[in-house]
Write a structure and sequence with these properties.
Elements (H helix, E strand, L loop, with lengths): L7 H4 L14 H21 L5 E3 L11 E3 L12 H27 L4 H13 L3 H11 L2 H17 L6 H24 L2 H33 L1 H61 L2
Antiparallel strand pairs: 1-2
Helix pairs in contact: 2-3, 3-8, 3-9, 4-5, 4-9, 5-6, 6-7, 6-9, 7-9, 8-9
Length: 286
Amino acid sequence: MAETKPSASAAVKSPSHAQPKSSNTISWVAPLACIILGYVIWRFILGAPGNFTTPDPNGGFWPQHKGPKGTLTKMYEGGIIVPVLIGCFLTVLTFCIERMLTVTKASGTGSIAEFVRNVQFHLANKDVDKALAACDKQKGSVGNVMKAGLKKYKEMISNTELVTEQKVLNIQKEVEEATALELPMLEKNLVFLSTIASVATLLGLLGTVMGMIRSFSALGDEGGGDAARALSQGISEALFNTALGIGTSAIAIIMYNVFTTRIDGITYGIDESGFTLTQSFAANYK
């Protein structure tokens, strides 16, 4: 009876070298904390009684202070949408810092293209250990994926039971598993930036419309020159909502594009790593 070769799926059952990434809690804690902090800034800093000529003695959740003394203090009279917008702005800053740290760490040290060429050189010389050492120096997502693939690569060199095609498939599968663990970490929390980029402008317009409704309502009730002055002041205060919303949206859009561009570069490096490993093994160990 002819001897049969074990299937590739049988060899794939060996434990994967890729390690799962731990989840974080910032995705649900940060927005809530930022909204609360936004209210604190609006209510107790911008809305401090000393910032107004006619403070509301009753206080409460939304004191009706009158006569803001400073330009920035006028934001308080923009209404209850202002603390939400401040919270959105703080959320954008929080996730910009968090993504910047994560993406910078994922990029590793040095040039990704230079790292891939260095690994290709070592593999061409059949020196897998030096290639693994280069991965340890890279310390990024590309290095992590390449290291996982190289460990399987080294394991397949000494394997005498599988044919070359099956060994290449095993290396490719290991790279795909490592990639599946790295990419979600890179893309995590970007949804907050993309969402706020759209929602912040709408919230700003909502706050402005609410302020305009209050101003025109006061004009209709009172009439006269005093009401006209109050109307102009009300429109000015309401436009703070639009300015804050547009500014927050602009920052979110810019940073979202910055991060996606950098992530695309890392993803390209990961794809090139997988191609390098499979092509190198197929060429060197036929």
